[in-house]
Amino acid sequence: VLYLFCAALTEHKILFLSSSYQRLTDACRALLALMFPLKYSFTYVPILPAQLLEVLSTPTPFIIGVHSIFQSETQELLDVVIADLDGGTVNVPECVHISLLPEPLLQQTREALSMVLDPELEVADLAFPPSAISASSLKMQDKEIRAVFLRLFAQLLQGYRWCLHIIRIHPEPVIRFHKVR
After folding, report:
1. Residue 84 shares a structural domain with residue 106
2. Parallel/antiparallel/unpaired status of strands 80-84 and 89-91
3. What is the spatial distance between Cα 42 and Cα 31, in angstroms, rounded to a whole number?
4. I want to staple 165 with a disulfide (CB 3.0 to 4.6 A). Which of 48, 55, 136, 178 is the partner?
């Protein structure tokens, strides 16, 4: 999930494959939901019809879902990150370099996600673990995962105002992002 998240943030092409249309739609929507508060502004097609498979050769970034029947047509795509939802794999081609999150944010996010998805890990090493550890409901788990990614964005974007540069020589001040800082 973190590879797909970073691929979407760095504007790579992402293709979901599955034999279930529901799973394709859910996976595409989940990836967009994790990007909140940012909005994905490129091509987004949760279920691509067979007649439009040539769209996968576009040079622009996308998030597209394709039924796994057409997996053979996607094999020649060289610059597309392919997530096989049925097999549970993510294939990143050699020519694609995905910039991951900087450390220690990457490790903190992994740990937070693993605690949400498997809360027993938190007390696994205790000599006397508490008697009852209950997993969160699916609705609560969804909120916890969203909170992990929202906290990640808050940490990534903290201090952004320090990088703003105000140019006052124009009749109206112009705010630019100072890339060097």
Report:
1. no
2. antiparallel
3. 13
4. 178
User: Do the Cβ atoms of 24 and 67 come closer than 8 Å?
Assistant: yes
- My answer on whether 85 and 144 are in the same domain is no
The per-residue pLDDT for range 116-170, each reduced to its tens digit, is: 888 776 666 666 666 666 666 888 888 888 888 888 888 888 877 777 777 777 6
How many separate domains does the chain show?
A: 2
Give the residue with greater pLDDT, 176 vs 40. 40
Q: Do 6 and 83 lie in a common domain?
A: yes
Among 120, 123, 113, which Cα is nearest to 144's? Answer: 113
Residue 29: partners with Cβ closer than 8 Å, 6 or more residues away: 46
Model pLDDT for residues 90-108, shown as the tens digit of each residue: 988 888 888 888 888 888 9
Residues 78 and 157 in one domain: no
| Residue 15 near residue 66 (C-beta atoms within 8 A) | yes
Residue 127 lies in a domain: no
pTM value?
Answer: 0.77
Domain containing residue 170: 101-120+135-180
